[in-house]
Amino acid sequence: MATRGTLLVGYDVEKTTECAAFLERMADIHEEMNAPCTVFALGSCLLAEPDAFEAAAENPLIDMAQHTWSHIPLKTVVIEDGDTVEVIRGGSLEQIRDEVARTSQAIESICGVSCCGITGPWAYYRGLSDRPDVLEILYDSGIRYVRSYGRNEKDFQPVSTSIQPFWYAPQGFPDMLECMVHGWNDIYLRSKVGWSNLQGFLDQMKADLDYAAERGLVFSWGSHDWSSLREDPSLSLIRGILSHARSLGMQVLNYRQFWARMDALRTRAGSNRRASAFA
After folding, report:
1. Fewer CB in a 10 Å sphere around the end CB: N or C, the chain?
2. For residue 274, what pLDDT band results from cuts at 50, 70 and 90?
3. What domains can you pick out in the chain, each with its CATH number?
4. pLDDT tens, position by position, 136-162
5. For the CA atoms of the chain, what is the radius of gyration?
6. Which residues 6+ apart lie within 8 Å of 30 measured at CB?
7. What is the per-residue pLDDT for 270?
8. Sequence-separated (6 or more) residues with CB below 8 Å from residue 5
9. Which runs of consecutive H residues, i.e. helices, occur in the chain?
10. What are phi and psi of 137, to 5 degrees?
């Protein structure tokens, strides 16, 4: 079957009491299905479970990236969910610089690999398009792919799959790629359909993948360690999502792989083409 679209798989690993169990079970499924993924590690989790992260990093399918040290937002979020308005204040530039540097150093020390990717805690409308000052800090810290565009114009969700990965060239960083999070992140969607309603969650995810595959688009999936385990200790939802993507003929990549391929295309083309051209 010809490849139809691309599924990017990444997990925010942020719960010190559950990250080790998640990493082990998740890795087993990804090995079984030969499916790459990225682990976006919180620095405090790296410190709490270094052996678990070291083992994950030894798996050639798993790309290690970061989620800051303490889950500090890279910019302020004003969430309008239709019922309430909640303001999550972003960190200062000094805090962001310190947290990103500390986490990258921990990944290199514990996992033996360099960190070139980050997921922005809480995620943001338009990613970091309006924050070149934050992008500069990330770039100087070695970050080349960012997963931060994870909210709509209400700083809520879902995020349309029609919005595809893009380069931060206008901000002055032509080789820094925004990969976003499409649809609903797992916490919002599972809360919406009911935590015990695994089939309801899977049905929505399948519909999102169908849409992307039919149009040859990238679908960037956002999930978490603790929420993946909740009411689903065997991680059957992960298995179901990967299986459906394979059945559609989608290629499954981690974010480092995707960035590297897109950067090679960008370099060869000599221009900043849209990431959807790769799908």
Report:
1. N
2. low
3. 6-269 (3.20.20.370)
4. 999 999 999 999 999 999 999 999 999
5. 17
6. 36, 37, 59, 61, 62, 242
7. 78
8. 209, 212, 213, 214, 215, 216, 217, 218, 219, 248, 250, 251, 279
9. 19-33, 43-48, 50-57, 93-111, 132-140, 186-193, 198-215, 225-229, 236-247, 255-269
10. -60, -45
